[in-house]
Amino acid sequence: MIQPADTNGLITYNFPPENPSNIFPPNFALNGFPNYQFTTNSSCISSNSTSDEAEGIIKERKQRRMISNRESARRSRLRKQRQLDELWSQVVRLRADNLNLIEKLNQLSESHDRVVQENCELKEQTSDLRKMLTDL
């Protein structure tokens, strides 16, 4: 500990103290910075294992992303196939509807032709009857 020294009523501190280990932690250097000691071998081993772990993590992430992308592509292909199947079934249904409508149109057209023909015959009969009536 730093001890005060009494000189003429003024308190002064003797610094640095004789034994600095009493006031600073053991890993603290007197220059104000922590005093860490590293060995070259432990640093290299730690660095290599960290780099190997990082590479392993990166490879694992790539693998997971690749699997995820493949699964996404498979789902996309299945979705496209379902859409294509739905479109083909719609084509078949619309063609059947079209054939039914054409058949109905043909029936209505034939019916119209018969009605027009019958109307012409009735007009002729009406005309003949008027002529007969005027001749009387």
Write the layout of secondary structure elements.
Layout: E1 4-7, E2 10-13, H1 40-135
Antiparallel strand pairs: 1-2
Describe, in short, the structure shown.
By secondary structure, the protein is mostly helical. 71% of the residues lie in helices and 6% in strands. The longest helix is centred in the middle third of the chain and has 96 residues.
Percentage beta strand: 5-15%
- SSE series: EEH
Q: What is the straight-line distance between the termini?
A: 155 Å
The main β sheet shows up as:
2 strands, antiparallel
Principal-axis shape: rod-shaped
Residue runs with pLDDT of under 50 for 5 or more positions: 41-45
Fraction of helical residues:
over 70%
Number of helices: 1
As laid out across the biggest beta sheet, the strand order is 1-2
Q: What is the β-strand count?
A: 2
Round the Cα radius of gyration to an integer and report it. 53 Å
Secondary structure category:
mainly alpha
Q: Would you tell me the overall average pLDDT?
A: 80
